[in-house]
Write a structure and sequence with these properties.
The chain contains eight helices and no strands. It folds into three domains: about 60 residues; about 70 residues; about 55 residues. The termini are far apart. Helix 2 runs antiparallel to helix 3. The protein is mainly α and about 190 residues long.
C-alpha cells in the first residue's frame, strides 16, 4: 500500500475552498442571495424558493448576508403598502364597473335585464366595499409621523443648501431679503411670458 504524506489542515481547507469556487452556484441558491440582498425575510425567501429556512440561513451566511430584522420590517411595510395600493386600485375599478352597470340598469327594456343589472350593481357594490382598504387610526398616525419626519429632513436639506449657497442663516433678515428679491425676479419673469 502506498504511503501518503500527511497534509496540514490549512492546505486541506484551501483545496476545499478552491474546489468550492469551481462548483457552479445552484440557481435557487443564487435566488436566495438576490432576495436576501433585497431585504426579503428568511421565511418569505423559503416560501418563494421552496428551500428550507435553515438552508436559506446557511446560504445567506455563506455569502456574508445576515437577516436584519429592521430591514425585513422595512421591506414588509413597503410590501403591505404596495398591496393596499393594489387593493385600492381594484376597488376603484369595481366602482367604475358599478357605473357601467347603472347605465345598463337605466337602459334595461325587460324585467330580466333590469334584474340582472340590479343584481350586478349589488354584487359589485359589496365587492367594492370589501376591497376598499381600511385605515386604522394608528396607521393614520404612523403615516402622518412618517410624513412629518420626511418633511423635516427635506426642509433641513433646503435650509442647508440655502445657507451653503448664500452664506447666511435661513432665519436671518438677510435671508428674508434675498428670498423676497428672488420671488420678485420670478414674478417679473412670469409677467413677461
Amino acid at each position: 500500500m502506498p504511503k501518503y504524506e500527511e497534509e496540514a489542515p490549512e492546505s486541506i481547507g484551501k483545496e476545499l475552498a478552491e474546489a468550492d469556487a469551481q462548483i457552479p452556484v445552484h440557481p435557487r441558491a443564487e435566488m436566495v442571495v438576490v432576495l436576501a440582498q433585497q431585504g426579503i425575510g428568511r421565511n418569505e425567501i423559503s416560501r418563494r424558493t421552496g428551500i428550507s429556512t435553515a438552508s436559506v440561513s446557511r446560504i445567506a451566511a455563506a455569502h456574508g448576508i445576515e437577516f436584519d430584522g429592521s430591514l425585513t420590517e422595512v421591506a414588509l411595510k413597503a410590501r403591505i403598502a404596495q398591496l393596499k395600493q393594489a387593493q385600492a386600485g381594484i376597488a376603484l375599478g369595481l366602482v367604475e364597473d358599478i357605473t357601467s352597470a347603472r347605465g345598463l340598469l337605466r337602459m334595461a327594456t325587460t324585467h330580466r335585464d333590469f334584474a340582472f343589472a340590479a343584481k350586478a350593481i349589488g354584487d359589485l357594490t359589496q365587492a367594492a366595499q370589501r376591497m376598499t382598504p381600511e385605515v386604522s387610526e394608528k396607521e393614520e398616525i404612523e403615516e402622518t409621523k412618517d410624513f412629518l419626519l420626511d418633511l423635516r429632513k427635506q426642509l433641513g436639506v433646503v435650509r442647508d443648501g440655502f445657507e451653503a449657497q448664500y452664506g447666511v442663516p435661513l432665519d436671518s433678515p438677510e435671508a428674508t431679503r434675498l428670498i423676497r428679491e428672488q420671488l420678485k425676479l420670478e414674478e417679473n419673469q412670469g409677467d413677461e411670458s
